[in-house]
């Protein structure tokens, strides 16, 4: 299981890019933290989610 | 008011050790709209030594409902208007202006600052800055904001910490595209969270 934004999900084996696409995230608006570090965008395609990973996905909204 | 008088007043309130940390800090304020104008003023009042003020835009009549500018500043670049405002509040704050649109290409403008405040209004620009700084400058702290539009409850504005170096203030949800507009108090609440987080980082208080 992978913990994503506090929820345990059965998504190990998917890449970060696949997960974001499946959940309808706009990649241009997100920042992804994987196990305590911000994951560089260039690594979304090649980073495979593993059991025990902890992920926070921030989807920015407009206004400031 | 001499610099010694000004520093003395700050030291009496903050203590000499903490004021020394504030005085030697360099903070980049990226975007000088509703968030950035309030963040810059708060940090200058606290006696932060160097502020990098970055914005490409000019003060417009439509900004006055939430941004810290006045009628006499209409048409001025926000960088210049804010520098002038800060000179009245905190004359010995070193306010360095960059009147440009901050992009991935000129991100090195913020290289000398240890803390970067993301105060943009556009969601893609927010993500660009947060990802760009995190990827290129591993040692910097980023204090970002997401979700402060509309007339939603004030108590939903919070500060979250992601990893060691990223803080995000706001409710995380309210999008100006849905709410239609922003209101000064709620934007100021979010900006106050950002400024408070910056001062806490300078004071080596990293928990939220």
Structure description:
- The complex is a heterodimer of chains A (64) and B (208).
- Chain A contains 1 helix and 5 strands; from the N terminus they run ββαβββ.
- Chain A is mainly beta.
- Chain A has a single domain, classed as Roll (Ubiquitin-like (UB roll)), CATH 3.10.20.
- In chain B, 39% of the residues lie in helices and 16% in strands.
- Chain B is built from 7 helices and 7 strands; from the N terminus they run H-H-E-H-E-H-E-E-H-E-E-E-H-H.
- In chain B, helix 3 links the parallel strand 1 (26-30) and strand 2.
- The N and C termini of chain B lie far apart (36 Å).
- Chain A binds chain B through residues 28-31, 33, 36-38, 40-41, 56, 58, 60-64, and chain B through 31, 33-36, 119-124, 126-127, 130-131, 134-135, 144-149, 162-166, 168, 170, 172-177, 179, 182, 187.
* SSE arrangement of chain B, N to C: HHEHEHEEHEEEHH
**Overall pLDDT score of chain A:** 97
- Secondary structure category of chain A: mainly beta
CATH classification, class level of chain A: Alpha Beta
Counting DSSP E segments of at least 2 residues, the number of strands of chain B comes to: 7
Mean pLDDT of chain B: 97
User: What is the CA-CA span between the terminal residues of chain B?
Assistant: 36 Å
Q: How is the biggest beta sheet of chain B arranged?
A: 7 strands, mixed
Beta strand count of chain A:
5
Largest interface: A-B, 17 and 39 residues
Q: Would you kindly provide a brief summary of this structure?
A:
The complex is a heterodimer of chains A (64) and B (208). In chain A, 11% of the residues lie in helices and 30% in strands.
Key structural traits:
heterodimer; A: 64 residues; mainly beta; Ubiquitin-like (UB roll); 5-stranded mixed β-sheet; 1 helix; globular; B: 208 residues; alpha/beta; Rossmann fold; 7 helices
